Amino acid sequence: MLRNRRFATALFSLFFMTGLDGVAVAGDPDYESIAENVVNQSVGIQPGEVVIITGGQTEIELMESLQVAVAKAGGQPIVRLNLPRANKRVIMETPMEHLERTPTAGLLQARMADAFINVASVQDPKLFADVPEERLAATRQAGAVLSDALRNVRFRSVSLGQTGGIPTEAYAASQGADYETMVNMFWKAIGVAPDRLAEAGRNVVGLLRPGARLHLTSAAGSDLSFAIDQLQPRINAGRSGDVLSVTGPSSVWLPAGEAYACVKSDSASGTLVVPRTTYRGMDIENLELKFENGRIASLSAGTHEEALRKYFDSSSPESQNLSVIDVGLNPHSQPLEGSHYYSWEMGGMVTLQVGNNSWAGGNNNADAGLSFHVAGTTLTIDGKKVVGNGELSSDYRVPSR
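Above: the chain's sequence. Below: its structure in token form.
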């Protein structure tokens, strides 16, 4: 999936995602149990804390359970409704001079709240496909000031739903996946215990030390080398307490299961090939990015190449720097046969991001960024194979119960 899940969410909604333990894996989800886990384990709400809960019209039942769980924990819940079609109308119909204003309301919310909980789903995958890039660029550039300011505001955040959010029939169809299979896998992946994910994550981040050299190859033609920055690598095991920072957000995502680190900004060299992904609901086929001195030197794609070029042309130069490496760890989340549905947490999935990496604790302050899920790759770190042909090496898998 070619998108910048974390950067876009941080700028415009101020919400992020995480992992749970002991949730039902089939049939109708038990929202009461899910809410209790999110509130008490993933984000750890304390008495008196202000908690902003957000979600769409189809998530109201889950939001109700979250509101009650926050109140039972002694928190003060504030519920916000996200309206995607109205969001699109705002971007399409608002005069440009207003779109270019810094969204200070978001910063005020971040200063007011101790924690954010977001639940999300994609009801219309192509909703934003026809929005002119210059309008989206105006909102990105206006939000860049907010992104920088958030580094000095401390809060915790958790979101339910990685790539594509909580599965919907429309999103599953857009990815060529069976909906029932996808949704059952989603809830099963949420049920993996945080301690098990953290153990596997520690084995991977132990290799992601400053200066470590990484080499990524694939049968599709990827051959890319880069180095890790001086910043601390992180683990998303589903608990915000595992990633507490002095300032800025401490964020986790659900389903959990990732080890990630920032990339040295001038280190990437070689070729990244992504056979298929999507951008704003548009299918991108045979995407090829060539990197030199850390940045994208050339770009080509079999479909919708011009849309990607417009995106980068309207963004700050740092948006083309390779900035994050992410390794998926969750044993119950895997690519589905016959589908091009990929997500961050999938065991053996390698995700690379260019552009803003503030969500990962990085220093790339670009006003934009994109992430690329790359299935079937082989990844070595200082010569040690961590992923081979899309599968985690045995030393880095989540241990059995």
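Residues 5-26 have pLDDT under 50 and may be disordered.
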